[in-house]
Amino acid sequence: MRYRHLFGPVPSRRLGVSLGIDLVPLKTCTLNCIYCECGETNNCTVERKEYVPLEEVYEELNDYLSKKPALDYITFSGSGEPTLHSGIGDVVKFLKQKSPAYRLCLLTNSTLLNDDRVREQIKPIDLIVPSLDTATEECFQSLNRPCGGLRCEDIIEGLVALRREYAGEIHLEIFVAPGLNDTPEELAALKAAIERIKPDRIQLGTLDRPGTEEWLEPADYNTMQGMAACLGNAEIIGEFRPGPKIPSFDDSHSRQIYETLKRRPCTVADLKALLNLRPAEIQKYINHLLGQGKIEIDHRERGAFLKVKKNHGRQT
Ligand code: SF4
Q: How far is the CA of 41 from the centre of ligand 1 (A)?
């Protein structure tokens, strides 16, 4: 069966072996972040609806889970914001009834958490990883580029409400964009917001792959460390280090990408055009190859190119 709404499972640096469920078409989101690995948001919306038919999602899950795969998580993520799908709660219920042994995770940009119905639908999920990159409206507008009149303070209120009502783990994720959200004023505002939200963990990440905006640079290690210390108990998310062999990880895709890059450096957009893979899936394979130290990112005037590291067989 060719899956349209499931991807992976692939090794994730935070979640182990994670099967992805993608509930919205590329690229449907409430934000258009400058660092987005899926490219520009062409459908920027706050409208919740059934973006993909639930029957198709159930059919794919029934087929995939009948093989009883070894998974650490089933994760709602992918080509945009998963809580935009009005039926996310039904998929959660379906999985909890059908396969209660699997842990569920949601990666969300937090923008819809101030909607009571959204919080109610996601309550049974075991781990929620919401993002909050800034606590000031000015930075929110330039870094996350929201649509539909979303306001930063409403998002923080939604996160506070989630913490109040939700018994599972919340790992708050912050993307560090040098020059935008790493100033003393920004840090003070973020710290105050975190004190209200009370997440179980705080995770800091920065650019480790080409983002939407080519001018964006990754934060250096000192900046990351300084922010982690200032925010208190924040972890810096490192590259994924491959662990034991994962039987369900599709090595052939990883090899295909590596072989392509051996011939010539490519951007993520080039790879999307060349290979018949979903963007979120391509990104996971890229992360895996980056984690293995086989490929690297080369920032050039024309954009961020992926290329094979010299000592890994590139023809020169
Ligand atoms: S990074 Fe996430 S929240 Fe931001 S535009 Fe991309 S999919 Fe949307």
A: 8
